[in-house]
């Protein structure tokens, strides 16, 4: 099983199953893992925080049954992430990442991010936080020393296949300078062979790839290209 607290020697490739063929999910995941993907990325959407509805605990449970040794990174695009901690831990999630935008004080009456991070760790999962493209990275500052992963969205969340937004790279630089070697810096949205060098040069070391991977004629070549990108110095 992957340990994300260990600094990687090359970028980690997180295969986002949002772009997989849902009718052939196990086969699709087996294919990309066999071709070198390091982990699976699961996008959970509640129809409120973002307009789309996607996967939940049953999908995670099914993935864990088929892939007992694969790291499962779960990104919750939901209004009330606190409602899912025990459920997703029991289903087999390894990482539970929720949005700064649903946390206090960004959202009055929102979740207490510090307490939620404690709950996630107590449930046996790694803890992550996420920011959307318009959100200033400074809001993450109180939590950076408590995170196993920070995810910077490089598209507006809710659907796959969107174009990479280079304006978020400045935030990636800012975060990279403020996290320790045991915290992964992930980017999600428009990551492909054409954009990967921008992402890793800014400091990303974990790359979520969706349509660029699952829609490729040569998936192994995509994974190899992402792995070949040069990581920024620590």
Which features does this protein show?
234 residues; alpha/beta; TIM Barrel; 8-stranded parallel β-barrel; 8 helices; globular
What does this structure look like?
The protein is α/β, with parallel strands linked by helices and 234 residues long. The protein has a single domain (13-228), classed as TIM Barrel (Alpha-Beta Barrel). The protein has eight helices and eight strands. The protein has helices at residues 25-34, 57-66, 85-91, 113-122, 169-176, 196-202, 211-214, 219-228; strands at residues 12-16, 39-45, 72-77, 95-99, 126-131, 149-153, 184-188, 206-209. The protein has an eight-stranded parallel beta barrel, surrounded by six helices. Helix 2 (57-66) runs parallel beside helix 3. The chain is globular and about 45 Å long. The model has no long low-confidence stretch (mean pLDDT 93).
């Amino acid at each position: 099983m992957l340990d994300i607290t260990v600094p990687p020697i090359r970028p980690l490739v997180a295969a986002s199953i949002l772009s997989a063929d849902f009718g052939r999910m196990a086969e699709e995941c087996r294919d990309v893992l066999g071709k070198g993907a390091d982990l699976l990325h699961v996008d959970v959407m509640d129809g409120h925080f973002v307009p789309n509805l996607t996967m939940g605990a049953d999908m995670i449970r099914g993935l864990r049954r088929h892939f007992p040794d694969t790291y499962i990174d779960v990104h919750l695009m939901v209004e009330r992430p606190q409602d899912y901690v025990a459920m997703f831990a029991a289903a087999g999630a390894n990482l539970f990442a929720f949005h700064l935008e649903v946390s206090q004080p960004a959202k009055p009456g929102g979740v207490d991010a510090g307490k939620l991070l404690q709950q996630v760790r107590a449930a046996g999962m790694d803890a992550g936080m996420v920011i959307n493209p318009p959100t200033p990275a400074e809001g993450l500052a109180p939590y950076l020393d408590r995170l196993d992963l920070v995810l910077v969205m490089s598209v507006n969340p809710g659907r796959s296949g969107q174009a990479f937004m280079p304006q978020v790279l400045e935030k990636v630089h800012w975060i990279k300078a403020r996290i320790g070697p045991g915290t992964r810096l992930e980017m999600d949205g428009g990551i492909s062979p054409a954009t990967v060098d921008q992402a890793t040069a800014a400091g990303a070391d974990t790359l979520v790839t969706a349509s660029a991977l699952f829609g490729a004629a040569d998936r192994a070549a995509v994974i190899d290209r992402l792995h070949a990108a040069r990581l920024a110095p620590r």
